[in-house]
């Protein structure tokens, strides 16, 4: 269990053992390193860990702290706070300098902490509960319940003799590096850091020690050292090499680290103006910058930072155009900006960039495909499935895309039909959605909101999902997602009276009711109708439910339309208007009968046959274009 290692690292740093007993400190470093690498192939339970701490520390300081530590982690919030504290150990201070109690983020300990924190951040609330229960079981039993992860399994091939030889050398090399760093000895520091990454057993390859590749990690650490010593040109050269290696190996974590250091170079050379020339060398092309912005969107960077980087890319694009060194087009840049303004929730500006990306003076296939998929998704979200498909079935686009882009295009087409089928409460006959091993930040926030709606029976779990989604969207300035989470929070507070402050100081209600996204607008009307019913304002509730029902009818979302009709019948009944109530009930019965006729068993339904025809026609077109593109390739 990685938690025991994190606790040892945390206590080693917080107790300032290095200043009190350097021998104990070095022994602890070796002991923790063996735990991280699982070199002794022994599963340590909590009892063994306490026993080992007595052997290492005669003063019993570490032992007493270890015994008391489990009492600090009794709830999920305690667990979250601990992971934040341990992550802060690898974060520099405001001036970019690391204190004595902190850890180099690219050392073995730093990489382990980053990996553990990343894994914890990706856990759902249920996953955090499982982790807490596993830890409590681990400290309360004599048998180990730890699980060796993939990272540790890669290192089980280390022999005992290699461990005894390699680990002390790596510790010594890193200590030499720290000494050189404190003395500002650039040459000795560079040599020591290279030695640290060069020491490795012969039984494993060079990609094992630091995850997806130690070479780019070593280069990134070296660049960080050069920047701290003011050797900017050498740092830039090393960073460019690390960027190239990271892209080849698809090491997103190191790629982001390189980009952060490039921005730090900007600050060090005093270029605060977002319109100032980017300090990336000519090896970093405009297309590279746009690719990095797309990665940053997926990783959840703040909207303001994304806009600043986009402005810099435009300046570079203009300069490159003047020198006839363009590797990207204005359409590519516009496609990226359309995605940024989509996150900002400003439809008018988003539409301008989408038009520029699809109707510019030049043609860029990648920009066309990306933008058209986004536009089709917007049409489908608002229930206009015909225009969504027309947007994708563009003959010029299909005559230009390659086989890789064709796979992306087909997933975009199926996504439109899949959304329509789900809303019409029909059995989906097409392929399942493409599984992705890397879910971007936008997908994670959207998933949390969807989980909240799906797990409405479990109120506490739904609330945890919602609060987390709202916080994540608010921090990153993703307004449409923040608006969706806010609307669901209003619904939770209306139903269960948690005491959540859902004040409307930012005019969120008006924005939700008039959102350009029909699904958000309908959901907001339905939820605020619930609130009006709770406040005994039946006139307002009736108006909102009628509006929501009409929108769901256009979206062809039969299930939610029935929910609105059912609530509306109850409202008119409470108002004593039996005529309106009966009319709504008749409509409700008709819609429910239509839903039943479109169930998987109702093969004689005329509407079901129409749906089959649409599915068959689209499937045939996809197959025909696939053959054409394959032959062309």
From TrEMBL:
GO biological process: anaphase-promoting complex-dependent catabolic process; cell division; positive regulation of mitotic metaphase/anaphase transition; protein K11-linked ubiquitination
Coiled-coil annotated spans: none
Domain Anaphase-promoting complex subunit: 176-267
Entry annotated with the keyword Cell cycle: yes
Entry protein name: Anaphase-promoting complex subunit 5
Lineage: Eukaryota, Fungi, Dikarya, Basidiomycota, Wallemiomycotina
Recorded GO CC terms: anaphase-promoting complex
Family of the protein in this entry: Belongs to the APC5 family.
């Amino acid at each position: 269990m990685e938690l025991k290692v994190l606790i040892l690292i945390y206590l080693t740093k917080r107790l300032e053992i290095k200043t009190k007993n350097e021998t104990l400190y070095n022994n602890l470093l070796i002991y923790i390193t063996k735990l991280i690498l699982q070199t002794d192939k022994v599963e340590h339970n909590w009892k063994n860990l306490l026993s080992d701490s007595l052997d290492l520390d005669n003063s019993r300081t570490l032992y007493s702290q270890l015994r008391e530590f489990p009492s600090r982690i009794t709830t999920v919030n305690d667990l979250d706070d601990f992971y934040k504290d341990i992550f802060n150990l690898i974060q520099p201070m405001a001036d970019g300098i690391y204190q004595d109690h902190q850890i180099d983020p690219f050392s073995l300990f730093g990489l382990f902490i980053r990996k553990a924190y990343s894994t914890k951040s990706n856990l759902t609330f249920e996953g955090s509960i499982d982790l807490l229960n596993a830890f409590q079981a681990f400290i309360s039993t004599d048998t180990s319940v730890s699980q060796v992860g993939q990272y540790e399994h890669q290192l089980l091939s280390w022999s005992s003799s290699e461990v005894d030889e390699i680990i002390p050398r790596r510790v010594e090399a890193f200590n030499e590096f720290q000494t050189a760093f404190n003395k500002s000895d650039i040459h000795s520091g560079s040599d020591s850091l290279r030695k640290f990454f060069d020491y490795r057993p012969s039984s494993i390859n060079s990609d094992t020690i630091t995850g997806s590749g130690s070479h780019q990690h070593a280069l990134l650490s070296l660049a960080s050292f050069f920047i701290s010593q003011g050797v900017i040109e050498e740092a830039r050269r090393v960073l460019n090499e690390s960027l190239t290696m990271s892209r080849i190996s698809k090491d997103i974590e190191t790629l982001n680290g390189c980009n952060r250091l490039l921005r730090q170079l900007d600050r060090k050379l005093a270029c605060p103006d977002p319109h100032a020339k980017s300090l990336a060398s000519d090896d970093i092309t405009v297309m590279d910058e746009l690719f990095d912005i797309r990665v940053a969107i997926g990783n959840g960077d703040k909207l303001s930072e994304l806009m600043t980087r986009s402005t810099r890319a435009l300046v570079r694009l203009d300069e490159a155009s003047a020198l006839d060194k363009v590797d990207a087009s204005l359409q590519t840049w516009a496609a990226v900006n359309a995605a940024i303004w989509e996150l900002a929730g400003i439809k008018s500006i988003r539409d301008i960039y989408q038009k520029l990306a699809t109707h510019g003076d030049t043609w860029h296939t990648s920009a066309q495909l990306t933008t058209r998929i986004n536009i089709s998704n917007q049409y489908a979200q608002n229930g206009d499935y015909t225009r969504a498909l027309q947007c994708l079935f563009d003959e010029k686009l299909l005559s230009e895309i390659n086989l890789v882009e064709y796979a992306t295009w087909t997933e975009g087409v199926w996504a439109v039909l899949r959304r329509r089928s789900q809303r019409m409460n029909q059995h989906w006959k097409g392929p399942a959605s493409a599984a992705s091993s890397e879910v971007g930040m936008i997908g994670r926030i959207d998933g949390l909101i969807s989980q909240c709606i799906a797990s409405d029976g479990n109120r506490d779990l739904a609330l945890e999902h919602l609060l987390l989604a709202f916080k994540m969207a608010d921090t990153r300035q993703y307004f449409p997602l923040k608006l969706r989470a806010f609307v669901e929070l209003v619904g939770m507070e209306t139903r269960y009276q948690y005491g959540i402050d859902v004040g409307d100081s930012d005019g969120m209600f008006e924005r939700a009711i008039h959102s350009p996204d029909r699904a958000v607008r309908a959901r907001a009307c339905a939820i605020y109708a619930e609130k009006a019913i709770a406040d005994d304002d039946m006139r307002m509730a009736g108006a909102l439910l009628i509006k929501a029902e009409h929108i769901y009818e256009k979206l062809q979302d039969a299930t939610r339309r029935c929910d609105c009709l059912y609530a509306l019948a109850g409202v008119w009944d409470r108002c004593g208007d039996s005529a309106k109530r009966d009319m709504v009930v008749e409509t409700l019965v008709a819609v429910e009968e239509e839903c039943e006729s479109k169930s998987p068993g109702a093969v004689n339904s005329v509407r079901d046959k129409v749906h089959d025809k649409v599915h068959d026609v689209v499937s045939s077109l996809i197959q025909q274009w696939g053959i054409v593109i394959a032959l062309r390739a």
